[in-house]
Write a structure and sequence with these properties.
Blueprint (H helix, E strand, L loop, with lengths): L8 E5 L4 H11 L3 E7 L16 H5 L3 E6 L4 H12 L3 E4 L5 H4 L4 H7 L4 E4 L15 H7 L20 E6 L5 E6 L2 H10 L3 H4 L7 H6 L1 H13 L3 H10 L3 E4 L10 H6 L2 E5 L10 E5 L25 H7 L4 H9 L20 H8 L3
Parallel strand pairs: 1-2, 1-4, 2-3, 4-5
Antiparallel strand pairs: 6-7, 7-8, 9-10
Helix pairs in contact: 3-15
């Protein structure tokens, strides 16, 4: 399946999660995504240790890698024909970074007036626009971090009366969410709680939320006496939202994900990409066409600079020019640096581009 975005070429100047995630969606939907990584190290998530070692593989499948040093004029010159032949530039660098590299919006538009420039930043125009941002910056500034409370203390009551994880007879937990008055009646019927269904103090969600201090302990006592399978079956029969309280690793064996093609066997290596052990990572949660096909895995996550030669050749560079860029350290990864110094004669196309202002 080619995907609805087949024929769209994207240059992705991105790192970490936000930019690569956007590029992943485009790539999964069929766009040709070229991940432009800084030489020599590439996207720093390639080097994350421990539990974060799968970060690069999670967000960079179905892409090609071009590892190039844009701080060097030869690197910027090599990029120009790629920009001219692309439809979209995607980046999530810090404020001013692309401009310092000569790749800001006006410079890119001069090379390709029809180019769409998608800049993902922490803040839009305003007093904070110069600030770099992380997920935690948003959490703390928006007040989300203050809502969790100290260890051992209960979370603050939310908007719903019954919206809790409950212990079951075996000690496992099941989350149950009752979000309407009709659901409350069905919940009470399913669990044999006729007296609560008729209690005027619990008639509306607002009343149930106010009654949480005595209502939740009452419900905990009821559900704790039932096997997990019984709690689940009653919630299913009553059409009540529920979920097992599990661990991330449980998803690898989740019946729905396995049956729906929700996991893709993705290679994870020491530096991301290339050969390595396969891990089931989440697919894009969309279905396409009448056949409800899921976007799949067409390329394993790339090795650093794995596609240098083919991408630059498609841009019109000669093999000798590509080898010369590698020899000068403008490229990282593949191809490996050639022996001996490179000269201007080795790079006729790039020399002309640099002379024109690259």
């Amino acid at each position: 399946m080619s995907g609805p975005l087949a024929g769209l070429r994207v240059l992705e100047f991105s790192h970490t999660i936000m930019g690569p995630c956007a590029g992943l969606v485009l790539a999964d939907l069929g766009a040709e995504v070229i991940k432009v990584e800084p030489a020599p190290g590439g996207d720093h998530t390639r080097h994350l240790p421990g539990f974060a070692a799968g970060c690069f593989a999670t967000f960079n499948r179905n892409k090609r890698s071009l590892a190039i040093d844009l701080k060097q004029p030869e690197g910027r010159a090599a990029l120009h024909p790629l920009v001219a032949a692309s439809d979209l530039v995607l980046e999530n660098d810090g404020p001013g970074t692309m401009e310092r590299l000569g790749c800001g919006g006006p410079a890119l538009q001069a090379l390709n007036p029809r180019l769409v420039h998608l800049a993902l930043k922490g803040f839009l125009a305003g007093p904070y626009e110069h600030r770099p941002a992380l997920d935690e910056v948003v959490q703390f500034q928006a007040g989300l971090a203050s809502m969790t409370g100290p260890p051992g203390q209960p979370l603050r009551a939310g908007a719903w009366g019954v919206y809790e994880p409950f212990d079951t007879a075996e000690g496992s937990q099941v989350f149950v969410g009752v979000t309407s008055d009709a659901q409350w009646i069905r919940f009470c019927e399913a669990f044999g709680l006729a007296e609560l269904a008729g209690d005027e103090r619990l008639r509306t969600n607002a009343r149930r939320a106010g009654a949480r201090p005595w209502l939740i302990p009452r419900l905990r006592a009821v559900l704790a006496g039932l096997p997990r399978d019984s709690v689940v079956a009653r919630c299913e029969a009553a059409r009540i939202s529920w979920a097992p309280v599990g661990q991330p690793a449980d998803l690898f064996e989740d019946a729905h994900l396995l049956a729906s093609g929700g996991l893709l066997d993705t290679a994870i290596s020491a530096l991301g990409g290339g050969a390595g052990p396969l891990a089931p990572l989440p697919a894009l949660p969309v279905e396409l066409g009448a056949g409800r096909a899921r976007p799949g895995l067409t390329r394993q996550p790339p090795r650093l600079g794995e596609h240098n030669a083919e991408v630059l050749a498609e841009a019109g560079l000669l093999p000798a020019e590509i080898a010369a860029l590698a020899a000068r350290g403008v490229l990282a990864g593949e191809p490996s640096p050639a022996n001996g110094p490179a000269t201007a004669e080795d790079m006729p196309c790039l020399t002309k581009e640099i002379a024109a202002g690259g």
